[in-house]
Amino acid sequence: MPREDGVRPGGEGPRPLEARELECFLVLAEELHFGRAGERLYVSQSRVSQLLRALEGRIGARLVERTSRRVALTPLGERFRAELEPAYGRLAAVVEEARSAARCVRGSIRLGFLGSAHHRMTAALGLFHARHPGVTTSVVEVTMADPFGPVRRGEVDAAVLLLPVDEPDLVTGPDFERQPWRLAVSIRHPFAARTGIDAEELVRTPLIHSAPPAPAYWRDHQAPLRTPGGLAVPRGPAVTTLQEGLATAAAGGGAMLLCRPTAETHARSDLAFVPVAGLGSSELTLVRARDGETAVVRAFVQAVTETASDTGRDPASDTGPDPRTRTAVGL
């Protein structure tokens, strides 16, 4: 048990200062009433007495005189209060400044996106800026050939990328809603006049795919080597960027699978975007370095988490507009 003189058992020297004891003394010096001091401190009257005795034991002298009629500071208590109040005030200000700094996110954040800036990402940015107007944001496009490189190299703080992501040094989530696939083909392609195709029909056209250094598992998911039924899908040209892929498809060099928002955002007169059934769905996730999270990044993750989808249904079940429609749809 600690002694009331503030000395540790075994002669180990004084115990460290207890901020609660100092706070109790200052409140009691102001109220000069144990009951009212306890009410302000949300403790019992006996706890106020206990804290005061511990402080007096630490100092080695009485600070407060207590009789049945009144409570008063001793001369030493008066001097102690006069010196303690400004010091305690400075300490409280330092703590409050640290708390404010923790609540107020400052700095900058660089966000990467693949294909198109998803509507939920832009909604999350709106919420993020409303909460943290002092943060500067820049948004850059990530290439298909190197989706994870910019995050690893610190070129972006986080990126919205297509799943799957099987990278031990990266953290994923929150995930975005699932989206149906679209097949980008030249308007001269036989599929261009179709309102939709089955995934098994992919054997009839070479698929444009991402070039390395994108991992093979990631490239094969975006441009599968086989249909769900196990049939081989012809391999088309490898491209580095989305624009290269769209240009290749428009020139008749192959077909390219895209998630619906990206297809809608990049609508153009020389391409048709045909819904593909039986291929599952595409899904985006927020990716950042496992050892590179900052207060700014955590605040953005929170904004993405709180930004719900603006649709009340699963977009992957939607067949979408006629693939021959050329009007771009906003995010």
TrEMBL record:
Keywords: DNA-binding, Transcription, Transcription regulation
Entries under Pfam families matching the protein: HTH_1, LysR_substrate
Domain of life: Bacteria
Compositionally biased intervals (Basic and acidic residues): 311-325
Matching InterPro entries: LysR_HTH_N, LysR_subst-bd, WH-like_DNA-bd_sf, WH_DNA-bd_sf
Ranges of residues in domain HTH lysR-type: 17-74
Record region (Disordered): 307-331
PANTHER family the record matches: HCA OPERON TRANSCRIPTIONAL ACTIVATOR HCAR, TRANSCRIPTIONAL DUAL REGULATOR HCAR-RELATED
Protein family membership: Belongs to the LysR transcriptional regulatory family.
Name used for this protein in its record: LysR family transcriptional regulator
Source organism per UniProt: Streptomyces tubbatahanensis
